[in-house]
Amino acid sequence: MEFKISELMSLIDDDSIILEECDVASVESIKEAVMNKIHKEETRTKPARRWGRTLLIAAVVVCLMLALGATAYAVGISIHRQRQDEIRRQLSINENAVSDYHEQSVPTDETEVHEGVTLLSTINDGQFQHVYVNVCPVEPEAVNSFGSTVTNEDGTRGFYEFSFTNDGENFGHATPFITNFSDGATIQELVASAYDEASKTLTLECACWKSQFPFDKPFDLTLQLRYISDKPDSHTYDAELIRTFGTVTVDPTDRSVREIRFDEPVPFVNETTGRTGKVIGLDLSSMNIDLIVEHENMETMYVPSSLEGKEKEEYFNEQLGWLKATDKLAWSLTLTCSDGSTRSGFGIMSMAYTDGHVVNHCGLGNTTINTGDIVSVSIGGVTFDLGSVS
Amino acid sequence: MDECTALKKLKVGDEQALGWLIDRYTVYVSTIVHSVIGAAMGRSDVEEVTADVFFVLWQNRGKVQPGKLRPYLSALARNTALNKLRERRQELSLEEDVLTAAVGAPEQGYTKKELAALIRRAVDALPWPEREIFLRHYYYCQRVKDIAAALGMNESTVKTKLHRGREVLRRSIQEGGYIDGI
Fold it and tell me: The whole model's pTM is what?
């Protein structure tokens, strides 16, 4: 197996070597650049305070545009930058001081039309690299029919799918990045918040699973629009390629983990077998929680193929019992932040046996947490002050 | 103001504290950044990356622990500079950066934390000057000729000692087993 030493070195820090100092940066210019970045960032993250003024300016601009015959597309920041701001807000990147989120440099000139795929940002949740892209051009019909099935001439049913792939054979399902979660809205109305009709640009999220996409080196991501139809008389389907938008190279981001191990493991019971397991801790990262548990037979959590009949059924029931018990635990998990607010309602998305325990992966959905701000954890009726755990 | 006070103030969003830290650490950070990208990029790039490092420090101000700022900045400077190189699609010029090691099965895998501890132990096990040469080259990305000049050695001596360092690391990985995610 091959390793890059320079990448292995990224796992450690060092301040033991005294390098020969060089005068290559002016303190004042660094200070000015940093302060500019901070103030620019603050301006971008506080839209509410300026809303009234923004509306007024927008109204004036629209009047001017109408007077001058300009199009809506020529106003404001580019759709790429606009979407980056929306994703950042939706994921609470600034509020939660998320360092793992990587935003790409995108064109800011609103008059440029960028057909194809524009990479906006990426974040790693341990199981998936969430890759946010703009694709263009997307016709309104494809957006309006998203989530609906239609009946084909031959009586079969089909639907449009935005797909992503790195090998042309295995496809993932890209989902519109919805920012407008209003109650009672139809799926089309929700999807509309990810679509800019003026520039025919749709913002998509591609959740790239680590089993298919390498997390240790850049990978190519190709975005397509496909029409998926049932295949008559079979359980398979036909996929017709409608359009390939293009390919971008994604540099996977790393994930910072806050490892919490309980001094006293939390016991829990498999109600099928009556046996006891234990939660030994949590790994927190900005976009997911790994619940670390140990129990009997965890190393063979998938039913061995050698088993058959009643023996197989019993084994299956035991493993199902562990799954139900850990899922119940995940739902009991509450994280308390330093300001007293709490986060809870985590379900297990996937699990794997690794490093001598079962890692249960709980996703946070389209949001993040500030891992450094969690001051206590409650699980299974036991509360841990994080000052008392290692 | 001392560093502990500055970090406490930084945590609550005090820009003056950040300014104090920039005054104190600009030379340290920019020296590391220059060490990584100086051969490939100019002064303005070094300044840009150095500013990025302090901006990330500001964004992560709640996470930095007193007493650990210097190694934190070192790793941040190094990794931000490497990202800059990747953005420009430029490669590091390092001696035999790829290490081939026979490793075990995935079920014997390491967590990243365990792997970091293994790397740390392997590097710390090197005697002087091998350790310094290894870190200068693979961590700070200094060129062989610059290391030779800094330590008053000839380049072939530096290369020999880098070879020994790689062997120690290779043995540590092989004895340790499989590494997941690297």
Answer: 0.54
